[in-house]
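Checklist before submission:
- one chain only
- standard amino acids only
- sequence pasted in full

Submission:
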Amino acid sequence: MRLMICTLAALLFSIEALAAGNTPPPERIGQHGRWLVDGQGRVVMLRGGNLLLPGEEQAGSAPNAQTPGLMAAQGFNGVRLVLFFNRLMPKPGAIDKAYLERIAQAVADYRAAGVYVLLDFHQDEYGPSVGVRGFPEWATFSGGHEPKKLPFPAGYFSDPAIQTAFDNFWANHPVPGTGKGVQDFYIQALATVAARFRDESAVFGIDVMNEPFPGTRCNQPDPTRAHCPELEESLLAPFYQRAGAAIAKAAPNLIVFVEPFMLQGALGIPIATPAPAAQWRGLSFHQYGTLAEIRQRGNSYALAGAERTQSAILNTEWGFTNDPVEWSAQARELDDNLIPWLAWARGPFEPLVDSSLPAAGNDNREATLRALARPYPRATAGTPLRLAFDGDSGTLRYRYSVTAPDGRDRAQSLTEIVMPKIQFPNGYTVTVDAKQGRVVSPPNAPVLLLKAAPDAREINITAVRKGELAPLPPPVPTADPYASLQQRPDAKADAGNSGPLSTRSLLGDLLGDPRAHAILEREIPELIHSPQIGMGSQMSLRALQAFAPTLLTNETLDRIDRALAQPEK
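Returned file contents:
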């Protein structure tokens, strides 16, 4: 009897702690089909962002030990921690142990806050020797081409130095004096990191390579010229087999995430990404489609690819905008598809949760945080069926089956729904049919806890905001994102300065502004409705001139600049 009383007390304490928003230490996440699952067999939904290690070069990303706790306080439960091969292995085969320990310290901080970590081996335009960042100079073989250092991401499409460096990575180009190739050392680095974190419950997986690029073939931002399933088979498949096997050997419980080629999500191209050689596998995809139609295709193709390979789906980059309306629209699309996500903000993610830091490119950060910190089921005792949140009315609707992806009934476990205070400052009302289940958390708890009724098969829940949200400040437009970058044209790492819109602004910013959008509709309708526009959202209109010279003549660009400079009527 005493044991039963102690067990019941522990359970009640656990429920109270969960409902109060006290996130428990992360337990190991596994994978079943397209879903991430926890040790209870519940489906785990991740919400969070991409972050560098404290002190990395990203503007505004000063060391801040408070970031993990601040993220958890806003309801986020996941991060994609960006790592770089050149920092990890500055010389062939030599691991920088100090860098590895910096990663470990960051992971420990996130674990203490109850936040899961995906370790991301990141590159942008291969590496600093030819492009932006990622690969060390000793692993860069550009065939003698002089790097052009074009504004990101134009180098992928127009710089033979970057393209050839990728060709040589896929060919496992020998590293002089070592008897090994570039790919061999890269896989060694993956295995080293996997071994270091094999017993770390907060680390649920490794993203093998950010946005792999095919090289000198299939490299144009045009859906008719960037659909190359044969290269997925000949380039990605053998690499992912080797990398997956090495990670699985070093850390059998880590999920090995692989990505399609970088243009596929942005252009809405079918995804035939091969699965890695690992028991637990995931498909990490990015979504930067400027048009909703392209994004919807990208989401559908990614879901189909995850189902085909029985891989857990996870969107690891999306957004990169200062338009709050666009943030909300894309978040709804991901909710519609029940896709977990880790967003990429215009500037560092930290200022979104820490108002003491400079905005650093997140010019509309209050509105951005409101768009991102949405209610979501972080753990579902069963299988999610439908998730919808209307930010205007503050209405959440969620439906799920008590049968988990593994076919077992999980009705005895709790479903946990995060209800961020930024969305529900005055609390919320809950409606659930008593025949389906009951709420076991206190009223207006930061985490809504549900328990299924004994005979329930599905549960429908509706939660509605009490009162109104405070109005947001007027949105601020973002000007030239390259103005302050000069020698390091990394638009995804650093954002621009707020100010008047011009042809040096990102196309995504221009399209997000109603007045600018109307001007572009009048001047260049062929371009803004083109299926090739996918990557255009991350490039300035001036930078796009190289890819559409007949549409974007100097005369046309000057005319657009004059129209944008006119005072609003």
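Reviewer check: Residues 229-250 form the longest helix (22 residues).
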